[in-house]
């Protein structure tokens, strides 16, 4: 089985957010020192692939990691887990808020490569994705989509993907090329790499691959409009102000309802 893992990374919350500006073309410009790391969803997707490979010698893991700030450090982090191939993915242009464009770029690249049996991607592909890129990518590739996967295991010669829905557990067998978006779960917490593998990554270099499209129509940030704000109505009442004011409003409401009288 050939597994392809797509990783993007997110801003490291241990450091102040770097400066962001919008260029004249309506694209994001990043200034200062940018630090990124694998998100919990990235880690979960990678761990599922590692678990499957650990049980089968004929299982191959290929990784594409999004280029950008701090990508070199993230590449070395992933390299310590010894994927069979690891490449830096450069999107031209990189506009993750434009999910349609991003899906088109990645799909165009993958359509010209050997087909993977299973494509794993985090439920969100980086900070600027709200979860639509995996859906649109599956549509572009014409792959079935199994969303919010939490676990993967071998069932004979096939892989079974599982997720939980309330008290129920849902599963699907991978019988043809399939894309699974992965969410974090205690069963897919990323393992620690071997220290010798970590040390070996210091001497590694990594291949780059560019994903672009012939005709680029970018949705510029400058053209986006703020969402319409409306007052919530119904039975719910929101308490405003600081803690003291909220407590005072809550006490007044309880008195109105005769509570404690």
From TrEMBL:
InterPro entries: ETF_a/b_N, ETF_b, Rossmann-like_a/b/a_fold. One of its GO terms (molecular function) is electron transfer activity. Residues 24-213 form the Electron transfer flavoprotein alpha/beta-subunit N-terminal domain. Gene3D superfamilies: HUPs. Coiled coil: none annotated. Keywords: Electron transport, Transport. Belongs to the ETF beta-subunit/FixA family. This is Electron transfer flavoprotein alpha/beta-subunit N-terminal domain-containing protein. It comes from Pseudomonas fluorescens.
């Amino acid at each position: 089985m050939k597994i392809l893992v797509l990783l993007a990374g997110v801003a490291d919350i241990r450091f102040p957010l770097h400066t962001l500006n919008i260029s004249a073309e309506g694209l994001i410009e990043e200034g200062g020192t940018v630090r990124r790391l694998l998100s919990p969803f990235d880690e979960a997707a990678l761990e599922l692939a590692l678990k499957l490979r650990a049980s089968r010698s004929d299982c191959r893991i290929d990784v594409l990691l999004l280029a950008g700030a701090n990508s070199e450090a993230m590449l070395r982090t992933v390299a310590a887990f010894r994927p069979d191939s690891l490449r830096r993915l450069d999107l031209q242009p990189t506009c993750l808020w434009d999910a349609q464009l991003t899906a088109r770029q990645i799909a165009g690249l993958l359509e010209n490569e050997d087909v993977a049996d299973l494509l794993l991607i985090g439920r969100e592909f980086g900070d600027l994705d709200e979860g639509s890129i995996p859906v649109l990518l599956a549509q572009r590739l014409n792959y079935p989509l199994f969303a919010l996967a939490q676990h993967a295991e071998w069932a004979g010669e096939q892989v079974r993907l599982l997720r939980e829905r309330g008290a129920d557990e849902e599963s699907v067998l991978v019988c043809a090329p399939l894309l699974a978006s992965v969410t974090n779960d205690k069963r897919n917490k990323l393992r620690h790499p071997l220290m010798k593998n970590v040390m070996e990554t210091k001497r590694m270099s990594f291949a780059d691959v560019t994903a672009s499209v012939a005709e680029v129509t970018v949705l510029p940030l400058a053209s986006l409009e703020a969402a319409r704000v409306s007052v919530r109505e119904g039975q719910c009442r929101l308490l405003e102000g600081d803690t003291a004011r909220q407590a005072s409003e809550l006490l007044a409401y309880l008195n109105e309802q005769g509570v404690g009288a």
